[in-house]
Amino acid sequence: xxxxxxxxxxxDRAAMRAQHERWLADIGSGTPGWLGSxxxxxxxxxxxxxxxxxxxxxxxxxxxxxxxxxxxxxxxxLFLGPVVTTEFADAVLMIEGGSDDAGFVxxxxxxTxxxxxxxSLEKELLRYLPEGRQDIIGGLAxxxxxxxxxxxxxFSSEELARAGEHGEQLPEIEEVLFDMRELTGEPTYxxxxxxWLVSPPLARAGRSAAEATTEPRDxxxxxxxxx
Length: 227
Fold this sequence. Notes:
Helices cover 34% and strands 28% of the residues. The protein has a five-stranded antiparallel beta sheet. A five-stranded antiparallel beta sheet has the order 5-7-8-6-9. Helix 1 runs antiparallel to helix 3 and helix 4 runs antiparallel to helix 6. The protein is built from eight helices and ten strands.
């Protein structure tokens, strides 16, 4: 599964939301290979959008469309400062994957000194979920060859997420998290208290074959602590 992450500072929330909905109405529903998106704006006006695609080729075809290029030209003007785009070729689902029913989403970003070791630890941690953190209803993760990583956790509510993160952790989870922190240091957290969660009709009816056959990978701060 291919993942594209777009982020930047956006002072006009209403305008960005309108553009987001315009893409869904005019472009998104008819885009082959688009599997869904999670987006929102943090309390400090940082917009982030994570879009999932069946392949890099599906994203390339979308990017080549004139209607998409025109939409992006208008959207880009809404950012204050640079727009950062990051892409991951091997994003994987965690637990049940992203959930359009989530009321709170947390995006975690950072860089690791050992991408392959981090992937191994993520798989190990997933063995203890969701039993070890029942407040997590879904997620996805990706690690790039250059060490950049992103994880997304979906919760029914922020209250349940906070209760879960401050609750007692399984010893096995604490051990894995300790090893992960040794590799990543302190990551950056983006809390989306009003997430924009969308997926195409076929994905809502049932996971697409590309997502359904992807081996789940895991999680970190899902069982971690706040900054």
